[in-house]
Q: What sequence folds into this?
């Protein structure tokens, strides 16, 4: 009976996942976008509802101005400002406005952009909403974390099991919504027009349909669903900017099972995932030998992996108006010169600058090292991975455990990076059959699973208190970061960090110029063309995942040495998303992109230049800049500068031939040498 009770209790969470998944299906049907920020939009709307209900104030969604905008005069004797129905109606109006704004300002300009640009723009919106929520909620977050329920909460008897009514109401509402949507999209003119535009936007235009109008309506409905779902679940599960936003992972699993097209299957999948997650809680209570981790977070990953293994490309193909491509990967030039200049400047800074600037250099070097793994895997091979910090975390804690067992430096970090390779290969299995948006979804689910299973496991990571990092030493020389007063961080560790990132950057550059690098680029450009020239696509992808995981693992070890005490919070999924975003901002297919990601990292050189404050405002602005860059300069800042240089050179020499993009050359000739 206990198991049945847990299964039925899971209907509440499953209904919310189903509602979020329905919104994902609508967004994909309308514009071919899988919105990673969908649950974050619901989170912000739920906080807006709570603010209207309790304070009569509107949360400001912009990065400037007051935190709240008063809609009602202050009345200290009033417990609530707006009635529940009024606050809910106003929130739905906000959802309408936000849905239109997100479509027209974020995703509509990316209609002709490559998949990577769409993913990154979606992540930029995710980061923006997360940052702006923390800015606006502030200290009042705790008071609005659990608003009162809009649904009946009295307990009823269902088959001998006591169950709160709100779970049943949530289930009925989402099932009813799915039935209505299925009928609308099957039998009405609007639904048929949306389906036609989803199959072929060009054909819809020729038939006189407006893809923009259809997409606008669908985005409005999707945003309303997200807001309503989180508002209704908040009294049960509470509200938290990060954890609520990550509900996108199980919602994506449900949408994948429904092939991003079937409302009925999507709802059934969402309810099933919620029930299984709830049942796992019961099993952990009964089976004390199970590790004390959130096993429910593994369910979405297993569902996604199984779905992709059976179906391959799970997202249906859309005939868009234009097909995009990955940013170009410029052939590295003057590697020795740039290495001497940048590394020499960093070393001089470590020896001469004060403490705060030395800390900034160390953080920049460490995060640039992890970002190099993003450049290798996503920039060179075209495999969109959202788990670099998860790989870094695996290596960091593995290195601590090895050091505690007596394994010395530098053997411990190298072996620990090898542990990241093993996990990375398992997570990279979907890459054998899929790429693009599918792989981004799979690696996001893998990152959440790794965080919950390993990085929050007491035996491996030390529990909530984290783990103390043994300082590195070589031949009796202390290379640790710890020092007293102005001597912190120690210059010896700073030199170690700079030398490590320089050596790895040079190695990655040489790999880019090698036959292996050309195979990577050929796979990125066109897998079929690469296979026709003799490239083993499967081995190339898995090899890239292994190499990328190893580099991320080295970066995680340096991160651990630099922070002395680490916990699961040091490697949260949010940090992986931010790292991919900032690397793309700089140029994801070049070493410069990794360096810029290090500069923009929290605590990096930009933070030091701003006074040592990594404020939420900085992250919100970075999110907006990322969205703009994805729409205007899909190849990032480095790509834009490179294109400008080529244009100037062509203007200076009219007879100079236009150099073909490296990935086009690689696709045409496999390992053929490039350059002029």
A:
């Amino acid at each position: 009976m206990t198991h049945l009770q847990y299964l039925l209790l899971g209907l509440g969470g499953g209904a919310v996942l189903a509602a979020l998944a329905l919104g994902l299906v609508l967004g994909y049907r309308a514009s071919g976008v899988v919105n990673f920020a969908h649950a974050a939009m619901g989170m912000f709307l739920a906080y807006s509802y709570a603010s209207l209900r309790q304070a009569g104030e509107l949360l400001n969604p912009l990065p400037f101005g007051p935190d709240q905008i008063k809609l009602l005069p202050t009345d200290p004797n009033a417990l609530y400002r707006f009635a529940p129905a009024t606050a809910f109606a106003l929130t739905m109006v906000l959802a309408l406005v936000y849905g239109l704004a997100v479509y027209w300002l974020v995703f509509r300009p990316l209609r002709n952009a490559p998949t990577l640009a769409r993913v990154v723009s979606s992540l930029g919106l995710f980061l923006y909403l997360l940052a702006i929520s923390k800015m606006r909620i502030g200290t009042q977050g705790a008071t609005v974390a659990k608003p009162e329920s809009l649904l009946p909460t009295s307990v009823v008897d269902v088959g001998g099991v006591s169950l709160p009514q709100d779970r049943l109401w949530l289930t009925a509402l989402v099932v009813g919504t799915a039935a209505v949507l299925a009928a609308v999209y099957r039998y009405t003119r609007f639904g048929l027009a949306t389906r036609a535009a989803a199959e072929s936007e060009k054909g819809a235009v020729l038939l006189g349909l407006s893809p923009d109008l259809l997409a606008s309506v669908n985005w409005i409905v999707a945003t309303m669903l997200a807001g309503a779902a989180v508002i209704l679940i908040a009294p049960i599960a509470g509200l938290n900017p990060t954890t609520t936003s990550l509900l996108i992972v199980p919602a994506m699993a449900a949408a994948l099972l429904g092939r991003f097209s079937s409302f009925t299957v999507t709802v059934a999948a969402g309810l099933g995932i919620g029930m299984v997650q709830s049942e796992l809680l019961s099993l952990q209570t009964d089976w004390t030998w199970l590790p004390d981790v959130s096993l429910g977070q593994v369910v979405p990953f297993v569902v996604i992996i199984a779905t992709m293994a059976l179906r391959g490309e799970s997202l249906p193909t859309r005939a868009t108006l234009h097909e995009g491509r990955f940013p170009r990967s410029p052939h590295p030039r003057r590697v020795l010169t740039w290495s001497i200049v940048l590394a020499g400047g960093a070393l001089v800074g470590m020896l001469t600058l004060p403490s705060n600037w030395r800390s900034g250099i160390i953080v920049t070097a460490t995060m640039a090292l992890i970002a190099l793994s993003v450049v290798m895997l996503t920039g060179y091979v075209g495999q969109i991975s959202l788990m670099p910090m998860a790989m870094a975390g695996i290596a960091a804690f593995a290195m601590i455990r090895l050091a505690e067992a007596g394994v010395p430096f530098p053997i411990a970090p190298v072996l620990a990076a090898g542990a990241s390779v093993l996990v990375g290969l398992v997570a990279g299995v979907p890459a054998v059959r899929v790429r693009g948006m599918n792989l981004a979804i799979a690696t996001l689910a893998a990152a959440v699973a790794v965080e919950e299973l390993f990085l929050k496991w007491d035996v491996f990571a030390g529990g909530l208190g984290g783990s103390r990092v043994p300082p590195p030493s070589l031949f009796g020389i202390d290379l640790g970061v710890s020092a007293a007063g102005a001597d912190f961080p120690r210059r010896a560790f700073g030199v170690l960090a700079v030398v490590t990132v320089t050596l790895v950057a040079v190695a990655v550059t040489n790999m880019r110029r090698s036959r292996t690098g050309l195979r990577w680029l050929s796979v990125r450009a066109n897998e079929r063309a690469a296979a026709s020239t003799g490239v083993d696509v499967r081995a190339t992808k898995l090899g890239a995942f292994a190499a990328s995981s190893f580099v991320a693992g080295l970066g995680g070890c340096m991160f651990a040495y630099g922070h002395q005490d680490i916990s699961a919070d040091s490697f949260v999924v949010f940090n992986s998303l931010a790292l991919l975003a900032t690397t793309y901002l700089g140029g994801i297919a070049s070493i410069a992109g990794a360096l810029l990601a290090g500069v923009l990292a929290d605590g990096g050189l930009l933070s030091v230049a701003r006074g040592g404050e990594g404020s939420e405002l900085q992250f919100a602005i970075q999110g907006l800049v990322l969205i703009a860059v994805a729409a205007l300069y899909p190849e990032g800042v480095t790509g834009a500068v490179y294109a400008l240089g080529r244009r100037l050179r062509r203007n200076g020499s009219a007879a100079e031939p236009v150099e073909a993009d490296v990935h086009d050359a690689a696709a045409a000739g496999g390992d053929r040498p490039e350059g002029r």
